[in-house]
Amino acid sequence: MRRVVVVGGGVAGSIVAQSLQFCADVVLIDQKEYFEIAWGTSRAMVMPSFAERIVINHSDYLRNVKIVASTAVDVTDTQVSTADGQSLPYDYLVIATGHKDFFPKTREERLGQYEAEYEKIKSANSILIVGGGPTGVELAGEIVYDFPEKKVTMVHSGARLLEFVDSKASQKALDWLISKNVEVLLGQSVNVDGVSDGHFQTSKGETIKADRHYVCTGKPVGSSWLTETVLKDSLGIHGRLMVDEHLRVRGHKNVFGIGDITDVKERKHRYIAQKHAQVAVKNLKVLLVGGKESKMAKYKNFLEATLVSLGRKEGVAQFPFVTISGCIPGKIKSEDLFVSKTRKQLGLKPDC
Ligand SMILES: Cc1cc2nc3c(=O)[nH]c(=O)nc-3n(C[C@H](O)[C@H](O)[C@H](O)COP(=O)(O)OP(=O)(O)OC[C@H]3O[C@@H](n4cnc5c(N)ncnc54)[C@H](O)[C@@H]3O)c2cc1C
């Protein structure tokens, strides 16, 4: 059987590994032993039982895949090397290392982190959230939903929250947060580095006192491990992996790049990463049986929708031609954050 190595066990990589596990010898290299449903993290921080549902060992949904829980550090034309000294040869390679982040290796350690974070949030009187994008807004929503007595402050450098939705929807999100007594400071930034006494200075000279703080701004692309490898010339602006219409890495016929790491011009979302994975799976299935390249599928951008939860019952949603807020987006997303759906897609029960 031909060998497929997938690097990155997030949204995109896990789908490819699962879909090809009976068509090839598949190896999944991930820096951790589990898949984590990223869009459930803010709820998991205030509800440890939710964390149990979003942190899923790769071995629970991959029946016929060799799982290597180590960081990939190098790639040549024929193999990938890992930090723990393994060399994994491939016929086809899929790079899906998303954004740079640090996670503990085991599910138990990760659940322990969520439990500890929950205790810290519970015991804090005041909380600072830096960043008013979807992650910051959703985290604030979760905290005020479960802990309405806490003083929550959000600092956002932009002129309005959720700048990718239209201004009416971003105003709705702002109004909702204010109605829950969140103090929102727009057009300001705050540097949290080196602050140990809980007093944070904003760029406009305001002082915010906070027992806990969370930085919810963007993370760099997870491609730094590629900069000295055979793929270095395929890294474009901001370290994004340049791919062609079939999602193959430019200049490399047997290497695919999918998910957040790619340079496809579109917002980076879970369902887009899923779509990339589906296209790569189709194309790999063609190549694995010696099919013609002309049979390969092309990836097409599609109209995007974005939903941001506001607590557990409300939300804002930006669809291609309309923006809505309130309990309809709340019903679609906020109640379960698509966690049951994602678990079912992996072949698992909605609950643990
Ligand atoms: C907090 C948060 C909330 C989000 N909320 C939403 C939302 O509500 N809706 C939505 O549509 N999208 C949301 N997203 C975005 C969505 O999660 C991403 O678009 C999606 O996860 C991208 O999938 P990916 O497979 O490209 O990367 P990821 O899912 O990030 O997976 C990357 C994987 O690569 C691994 N990895 C990285 N480097 C290495 C290495 N060198 N060696 C081995 N393994 C490596 C990581 O461990 C990780 O498992 C959210 C993201 C975050 C972080």
TrEMBL record:
Family annotation (Pfam families): Pyr_redox_2
Example of a GO MF term: flavin adenine dinucleotide binding
Domain FAD/NAD(P)-binding per the UniProt entry, residue ranges: 3-274
GO cellular component terms attached to this protein's record: cytoplasm
Annotated Gene3D superfamilies: 3.50.50.100
Function: Putative FAD-dependent oxidoreductase.
Classification via PANTHER family: APOPTOSIS-INDUCING FACTOR 1, FAD_NAD(P)-BINDING DOMAIN-CONTAINING PROTEIN
Protein name (database record): FAD/NAD(P)-binding domain-containing protein
Biological source species: Cannabis sativa
